[in-house]
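Summary of Year 1 activities. Much of the first year was spent building the evaluation harness for sequence design. The harness presents a backbone, in tokenized form, and records the residue chosen at every position. We chose the following record to illustrate the format because it has been used consistently in internal testing since the harness was completed.
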């Protein structure tokens, strides 16, 4: 979750349109997609601006009802006002704000703060600052410009084992979209990627002993 960007898309017609994989790999990135009911999930790792523009164009051409970008930001680069309370933040593009703004407000979510360019000057210009967020800010800005319904959910986290952060973020998303039903007791049992078992490597080879 820390080094990758996760996209969720609610698709109008899952039988039409597809992402051009040849172009994906020509831009030195990778993607994993799969369909579940009407959902399409896509995991990406790239900072190439031309690919970002391709993604925006692809989202528009597919006619997705909404797009959700799961991301993160460096915890050690937070502004003073971000040091208290939850580590979770959200952003909505203007088009999605009209549709989901009230509902998100009822959930008590905290919007990503704009930071002063000059911290010690109260009247300084405010800007969106997501250090460590990779393409998050640029993609969000593009979707605002293109009138795309996008939500950004992110979490402030540190280097190391971010599995708890991943669960916190996906549970936060589930509170809104109800991807899985919450049990009366305990928490939702998410299926984790097999790669998480080797988060810190495959262990010491037995041949050494």
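For this record, the design step produced the sequence shown next.
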């Amino acid at each position: 979750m820390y080094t990758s960007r996760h996209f969720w898309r609610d698709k109008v017609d899952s039988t039409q349109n597809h992402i051009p994989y040849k172009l994906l790999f020509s831009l030195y990135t990778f993607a994993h997609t799969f369909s579940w009911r009407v959902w399409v999930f896509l995991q990406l790792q790239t900072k190439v601006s031309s690919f970002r523009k391709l993604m925006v164009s692809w989202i528009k051409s597919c006619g997705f009802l909404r797009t959700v970008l799961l991301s993160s930001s460096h915890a050690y680069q937070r502004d003073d006002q971000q040091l208290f309370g939850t580590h979770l933040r959200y952003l909505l593009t203007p088009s999605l704000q009209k549709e989901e703004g009230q509902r998100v407000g009822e959930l008590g979510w905290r919007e990503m703060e704009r930071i002063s360019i000059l911290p010690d000057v109260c009247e300084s210009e405010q800007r969106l600052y997501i250090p460590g967020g990779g393409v998050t800010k640029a993609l969000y800005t593009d979707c605002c410009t293109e009138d795309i319904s996008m939500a950004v959910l992110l979490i402030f986290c540190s280097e190391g084992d971010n599995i708890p952060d991943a669960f916190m973020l996906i549970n936060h998303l589930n509170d809104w979209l109800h991807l899985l039903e919450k049990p009366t007791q305990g928490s939702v049992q998410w299926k984790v990627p097999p790669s998480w078992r080797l988060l810190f490597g495959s262990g010491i080879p037995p041949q050494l002993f």
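Strands lie at 5-10, 31-36, 39-44, 66-74, 88-92, 114-116, 126-128, 150-157. Quantitative recovery figures across the full test set are reported in Table 2.
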